[in-house]
Design goal:
globular, alpha+beta, 4-stranded antiparallel beta sheet
Length: 85
C-alpha cells in the first residue's frame, strides 16, 4: 500500500525512533531543535512499520523508521505559503 500523505513529526518522536548517536549529532550540528515539529515525508510502507525522511533545519534530512501505529497517529503536515517581506 502506498501512503501519499506528508505528516508532521515532533522532536520527541524523532528522538524516540532515531538512534541516540544520530540525535546527538543533529543537536550538535544545530539542525534539530527540541521545541519544533518537522515534515515527515513517507517513503516506504510495510505491514508493521513505515519509513520516512524527516526534513530538518538548514535543509538536512534524517531517515527514520516508525511503527505503523505511530505513523498513522501523526497529524497531516499543513503546508503554508511563504510570506514575501
Amino acid at each position: 500500500m502506498i501512503v501519499d500523505v506528508d505528516k508532521q513529526i515532533s522532536f520527541d518522536i524523532i528522538e524516540q525512533y532515531a538512534t541516540a548517536l544520530d540525535i546527538q549529532k543533529m543537536l550538535r550540528a544545530g539542525v534539530i531543535s527540541n521545541d519544533c515539529d518537522y515534515l515527515a515525508i513517507h517513503i516506504e510502507n510495510h505491514p508493521e512499520f513505515d519509513k520516512v525522511i524527516v526534513k530538518l533545519d538548514c535543509g538536512y534530512l534524517e531517515y527514520v523508521t516508525l511503527p505503523t501505529e505511530i505513523f498513522n497517529e501523526l497529524p497531516n503536515y499543513e503546508y503554508r505559503e511563504k510570506q514575501v517581506p
